[in-house]
């Protein structure tokens, strides 16, 4: 399931997650890059104009950082100037792939950091206000995300239908986006970030705060440009060395564990749709989620409900315990034949507005980047075999959250019109300044074990554990982690041991 970094409001979703494989790559020399055929990009001057309370600019980057003749695309930038005297610049990314840093920049840091630093966010290549990925129009996207299939899920007939649909989708993305579609990989984004650092701060090292998928951007950047790492904080971290399918299994287990946490809380309160022991209630939830296929439940706007959309809605509500009441509404709605609570959550996840339009292209970027960040053709197991393995690891929620995520990715990326990118073979970022890695013990989207693994891989990794539920932790209600991060940026202090916030 896409990893989403969330603000306080449920309706403000920021991004999705991803999968990634290691691959061979040499570390570039920044000076050689600035002196090469790409020098024109490093010579450009950014023009900042007022855009509401922010300042905005655009930056040109080559589509292909390995092709001197490459065409260019535009990257949208937004800056929140420090409210007091600026001590420097913090670059922020909300996650994804597909999250808008332009929209996120005002919410990224605490007031203490906003007082003391310029905060810069950007829409990574293909995202939002940057030169965008374009696939279907809104009606076509609606059909792709919500239409039901003639054949039942988990059958070869369904896979055949899905394959035909996704081949058409990939062709539309290629036709409407062009060469950029094959260069949405995270290595290219890390090079864009290095250009951004150079244009905005000159010779100063990069101070960076990345959430969720943004931690992968940070890890790749640190491996490619370790000497330019300043204060790095990676919250909701991803292990870059885990194979794509293994990541999805661990993530599904994370959602299963969070569903159990929800269920324990639900059973302890009145109005819970379930009864009996925790195991009894989990079994009831699984049956209820699967009961919608063919039941004829329809939303107020006429969309037919199926278990794939239920899986998306349930996953959406598990990113934070603050949203568990919406999950109760979802289950009660299914019981009473009301499909709207499910579609509300799924629509928030997919950034769909009430009129059927879409607020952003996060879904398209998530899928496209996932395809070029991984070599899906290396996996000899069938989609159905992999779905069964995920369901065995996460028996309650696994059969449903995979339908619009893993199954789509596996079929789509196997038929993607561009090859996978090369990635570093290790992520030690040798010589980098301390890199703070934050992991929440019951994070459904980026499980805690990933933060532990990344902190160990990085030569200068510093693990900060947050005890609790939910996806990402900084700039929320945990004063401990807020203080630890702020002290690092403000006073250059990292804890000498895990504070276990």
Structure description:
The protein is 42% helix and 12% strand. The protein has 501 residues and is α/β, with parallel strands linked by helices. It has 2 domains: 30-132 and 184-240 and 423-491, 3-Layer(aba) Sandwich (Rossmann fold), CATH 3.40.50; 244-414, no CATH class. It has a 9-stranded mixed β-sheet, sandwiched between helices.
List the main descriptive attributes of the protein structure presented here.
2 domains, 9-stranded mixed beta sheet, 501 residues, Rossmann fold, alpha/beta, 19 helices
Short description:
The protein is an alpha/beta fold. Helix content is 42%, strand content 12%.
Number of helices: 19
Q: Outline, from the CA principal axes?
A: globular
- How many extended strands? 9
First CA to last CA: what distance? 27 Å
Structural class: alpha/beta
Helical percentage = 40-55%
Q: Please give the largest β-sheet.
A: 9 strands, mixed
Average pLDDT level:
91
Low-confidence stretches: 1-32
CATH A-level architecture of the largest domain: 3-Layer(aba) Sandwich
Strand arrangement within the widest β-sheet reads 1-2-3-5-4-6-7-8-9
**Total separate domains:** 2
- Strand residues, percent: 5-15%
Run of helices and strands: HHEEEEHHEHHHEHEHHHHHHHHHEHEH
CATH fold title of the largest domain: Rossmann fold
Oligomerization state:
single chain
CATH superfamily of the largest domain: Alpha/Beta hydrolase fold, catalytic domain
CATH class of the largest domain: Alpha Beta
Radius of gyration: 22 Å
């Amino acid at each position: 399931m896409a990893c989403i970094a969330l603000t306080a409001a449920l309706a403000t979703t920021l991004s999705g997650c991803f999968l990634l494989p290691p691959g061979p790559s040499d570390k570039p020399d920044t000076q050689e890059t600035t002196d090469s055929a790409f020098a024109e990009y490093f010579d450009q001057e950014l023009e900042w104009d007022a855009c509401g309370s922010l300042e905005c600019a655009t930056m040109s980057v080559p589509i292909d950082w390995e092709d001197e003749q490459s065409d260019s695309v535009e990257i949208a930038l937004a800056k929140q100037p420090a409210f007091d005297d600026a001590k420097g610049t913090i670059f922020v990314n909300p996650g994804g792939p597909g999250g808008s840093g332009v929209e996120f920049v005002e919410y990224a840091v605490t007031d203490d950091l906003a007082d003391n630093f310029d905060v810069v966010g950007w829409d990574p290549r293909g995202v939002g206000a940057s030169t965008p990925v374009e696939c279907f129009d809104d009606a076509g996207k609606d059909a792709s995300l919500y239409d039901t299939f003639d054949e039942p899920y988990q059958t070869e007939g369904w896979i055949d239908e899905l394959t035909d649909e996704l081949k058409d989708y990939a062709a539309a993305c290629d036709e409407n986006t062009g060469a950029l579609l094959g260069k949405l990989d995270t290595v290219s984004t890390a090079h864009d970030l290095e250009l951004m650092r150079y244009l905005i701060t000159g010779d100063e090292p990069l101070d960076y705060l990345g959430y969720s998928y943004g931690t992968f951007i940070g890890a790749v950047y640190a491996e490619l440009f370790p000497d330019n790492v300043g204060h790095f904080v990676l919250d909701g971290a991803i292990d870059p060395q885990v194979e794509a399918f293994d990541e999805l299994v661990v993530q599904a287990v994370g959602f299963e564990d969070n569903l159990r946490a929800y269920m324990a809380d639900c059973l302890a309160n009145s109005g819970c749709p379930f009864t009996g022991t925790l195991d009894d209630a989990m079994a009831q939830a699984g049956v209820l989620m699967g009961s919608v296929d063919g039941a004829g439940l329809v939303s107020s706007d006429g969309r037919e409900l199926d278990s794939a959309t239920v899986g998306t809605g349930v996953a959406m509500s598990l990113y934070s315990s603050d949203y568990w009441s919406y999950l109760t509404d979802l289950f009660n709605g299914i019981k009473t034949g009301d499909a709207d609570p499910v579609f509300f959550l799924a629509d928030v996840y997919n950034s769909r507005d009430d009129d059927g339009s879409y607020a952003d292209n996060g879904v398209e970027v998530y899928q496209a980047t996932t395809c070029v960040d991984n070599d899906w053709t290396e996996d000899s197991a069938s989609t159905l075999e992999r779905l069964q393995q995920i369901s065995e690891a996460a028996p309650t929620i696994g059969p449903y959250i995979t339908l619009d995520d893993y199954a789509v990715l596996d079929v789509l990326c196997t038929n993607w019109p561009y090859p996978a990118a090369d990635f570093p073979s290790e992520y030690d970022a040798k010589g980098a300044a301390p890199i703070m890695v934050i992991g929440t013990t019951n994070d459904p989207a980026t499980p805690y074990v990933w933060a532990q693994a990344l902190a160990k891989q990085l030569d200068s990794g510093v693990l900060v554990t947050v005890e609790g539920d939910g996806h990402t932790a900084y700039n929320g209600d945990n004063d401990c982690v807020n203080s630890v991060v702020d002290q690092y940026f403000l006073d250059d202090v990292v804890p000498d041991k895990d504070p276990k916030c």
